[in-house]
Amino acid sequence: MRLRLLTDFRSHFPRNFFAPVLTRIALTDQTSRCSTCVLGQICLPVGMNADDVRKMDDLVTERIRIKKGQALYTLGEPLEAVYGIRFGTLKTHLTLEDGRHQITGFHLPGEIVGLDGIGEMRHVSDATALEDTEVCVVRYAELQQLSRRLPSLQHQFLRIMSKEISQDHLMLLTLGSMRAEERLAAFLLNLSRRSSERGYSSTEFVLRMSREELGSYLGLKLETVSRLFSRFAEAGLIQIRQRHVKLIDMAGLRQGDDRPDPADRPAAASAQMSGCSSASSSPIPGDT
What we know:
Helix content: 25-40%
CATH superfamily of the largest domain: Jelly Rolls
CATH class of the largest domain: Mainly Beta
Strand content: 15-25%
Low-confidence stretches: 1-11, 257-282
Structural class: alpha+beta
Number of strands: 12
Order of helices and strands: HEHEEEEEEEEHHHEHHEEHH
Largest sheet: 5 strands, antiparallel
């Protein structure tokens, strides 16, 4: 009875009302701004000239630190900011009616999260830390104002949103047309490319997500993901030790494994994309 009363009590509050308070860090050091950030070549300022990037320094005056398992934002929250990941990894996900989580993306340092909420001015998914993570806070109202004065910043947002749409199309292709082993191989190669872009090894990395989370993202059952990792290792394509992965045969991964896989292909495409395509209808900052 006591547990039921507590549950009923909690139901009257937003989902994140009882969540731990996020750690906010005010930036007072000029060396901690966009113009001096080591991620500038892959984050928001990429492609902008030095003078325009310096004008962005006053745009980011705060960072947030998120503990592993903690939510940065949740579905339905008003959109006040978008977030550039400084270090760590985030997952974006939706909660289905039966309580299951559908992963819609894994996000690495230098990537921007929260863009899909611009159209409705509310977040359309949850963003949760897969490890201790720090993000730069970009207030959306201030971003709009600066975009009106900096065409290069508005152009950059167009580029980022275009990239989001392209990634959505690629995920639809992955879920709708690829066999199970092709999906996992494509994911590993994608992670390899993104790791290389950040100056890390393209062949060795740590998977911050669980196999269950990876299965949710790829539309595969947990046992299928585990079996495919074993098959890839036996075929000499990868070496794996717990979450540490080493890619041995990149060409083999690109070709895919043509042996048939008996695993069923869950029809996850519609759930996967329901929270990802808002970027296509979102207003560009400074365009209103």
